[in-house]
Amino acid sequence: MKVALAVHGGAWNVPDDDLQDHQAGIERSLRHGWQLLGAGASALDAVTSVVQLLEDDPLFNAGTGSHLNRLGKVELDASIMEGNDLQAGAVAAVERIRNPILLARAVLERSEHVLLVGKGARRFARENEVPECRARDLLIGRARETYLRIRAGETDLIATEFAPRDESSAKTGPEHMGTVGAVARDSSGCIVAATSTGGTLDKYPGRVGDSPLIGSGTYADSRLGGASCTGWGEGIIRVVMAKSTIDRISAGDELTAAADAALDNLARVGGRGGMILIDHDGRPAAAFNTPRMARGLACAEHGLRAGVDASMERLA
After folding, report:
1. Which of 158, 209, 239, 308 has the smallest set of CB atoms within 10 Å of its CB?
2. How many Å apart are CA 57 and CA 53, to the nearest integer?
3. Residue-level pLDDT at 169
4. Which structural domain range is residue 140 located in?
5. Per the domain annotation, does 315 fall within a domain?
6. Residue 256 among the catalytic residues
7. Number of structural domains in the chain
8. Buried/exposed code over 271-296 (b: 16+ C-beta within 10 A; e: otherwise)
């Protein structure tokens, strides 16, 4: 069966100065996951490893380098779904976990529940030996600087997080970085999707976006396809974007048509974002309605491709 991989590092206003770094970060994760799949790794292992790699990259808004909430704390969300048996695990508003995707997978494999939050999720982490860390280990200077700027009154950073930048905001634009995600189809035909995030700028304590919600930010069904979403979570939740896109594929829509229709529906609620997806035939795709989206696609037919702007480059 055809092996395929799609990864993303967030759909938002990526500043011009950060384009090269985002491209490089996505290329690293795409090559890493593709190598694992080529060596016979399961989609579950490949997706977990790719998302963990992106969580450890301080460039992206997941794990290390995540946003600070309104109280100056890091609260993380993540989910993962296996498409053969429709098993899923997710965590939300969890603190001091370096790799929330590892905790989400532990929920999938070792819990009778799907979603654990807050203190309960941390207790589950300790019981299942998922590594914890100090809160300051997740912080980077850029995230703290942005937090202090917002506290000082620069609320335009929030308003322009996903919308097109004008000349006045081009130099001082938001340091959103990006939610991360991956979707893979392995040689057995199993499709797995996963998403991880630090949330939106200046989020209210306890706020949960689409990333840990099965059906909204993440969904996988090996008979149909899998998707990972990114962007303004409140809008993505309202249109249940991941599941609704897979439903369109089930109804007969071509892959890119399904993704474009999902974004049209997202626009209905004033939403901006993007998604990566793979269908049951192993075809990967990406779509977004934000100014830019860091994403990479890999399959035997088209090789490895990555991009941040509208076009994608084929990798050597």
Report:
1. 158
2. 7
3. 42
4. 4-309
5. no
6. no
7. 1
8. bbbbbbbbbbebbbbbbbbbbbbbbb
